[in-house]
């Protein structure tokens, strides 16, 4: 029987290759790629940093200060930080802040430790060898801030807290809690203790906060207020295309630069949808480093006006899961917000299948309900799809679902549904 070959981007930060899946030959397959955007040049990045939005120039902010901390996002974000750091470091050097007085902190939140070799991938080997680079530990030696957060005192990363100049580099992606990721989220929950992370997520999970509009999202406004109180003065926000190259870069005030990036993001992430499908393949790239992060594929579905797959259809989540199940102080087994997996109510009667070659079925059951089939071998997935859909079938493929926002037939981009 003939087959249709589909190539999926695969293994962000680890392989960044194309992974081939064979689909039944009698299917109609649409690869629903996002609009994308042209990659920025080094000159574009330099121009954004030297012409900040609603902020004094970085050199002016750095004047008279003797230490600096640059906060970056972790491996679960596509930001090619190594392209952004050099012009920032040059400006700090010109402001007479010594290289030895500059620290780079990876804001992992509760995602767990990142090995040194992976940090080097993010910042570049030369910077990793020259500067002090550390990974935030949400259960480590954290600084008390004197700021009340709920019924506790907020504690944050000590290196960040003690630096005289605080700035950040973050990725802008659709986010189910914060509307868009990045910005002040680098601080809360990126640099806080695990209890603060749990509190910040609690109200969204209860349906009391969140929403697609970052200007009305209380989860985000709380993070921004705290980041300002803690002294974060400057940020670089990056909108990446499907190749993970920076397509738009905005620098300056931690709110103004973030909103400018949020405004530009739909032009890169917009994905035109012209019809409904019997089967939908949601690929987790560029958040395919682990199975926990792969849950972000559903953001693509939640941006649609109406279901994109039929009531009795099948949704296939595909992920490299290069780090296996992954770590998350809230949502991993034993985490503060972990719940045993259940059927996903928003899918209603639709079947959910998981294709994760690096994860055993037993390990996948920590996150995926036992009624959802798990496949490790591509030929087994192909055979199961052939058996499930022996008739002509319409299939849509989202190659990088966590960064895709569905636009309807009229072209109006919908916000993330929470």
At CATH level 3, the topology of the largest domain is: Rossmann fold
Main sheet: strands, sense, barrel: 6 strands, parallel
* CATH class value of the largest domain: Alpha Beta
Could you give the count of β-strands? Answer: 20
Helix content: 25-40%
Strand content: 25-35%
Low-confidence stretches: 410-418
Pfam families: Lar_N
GO molecular function, one term: lactate racemase activity
Domain LarA-like N-terminal: 14-203
Protein name: LarA-like N-terminal domain-containing protein
Architecture overview:
With 418 residues, this protein is of the alpha/beta class. The protein folds into 2 domains: 3-32 and 273-407, Alpha-Beta Complex (2-enoyl-CoA Hydratase, Chain A, domain 1); 42-267, 3-Layer(aba) Sandwich (Rossmann fold). Helices cover 25% and strands 27% of the residues. The protein contains 12 helices and 20 strands. The strands form 6 sheets. A 6-stranded parallel sheet has the order 3-19-15-16-17-18. It has a 6-stranded mixed sheet with strand order 6-5-4-9-12-13, with helices on both faces. A two-stranded antiparallel sheet has the order 1-2. Helix 1 (42-50) packs across helix 3 (81-94). The longest helix has 14 residues, at 81-94. It is globular. The protein starts with a strand and ends in an 11-residue tail after the last strand.
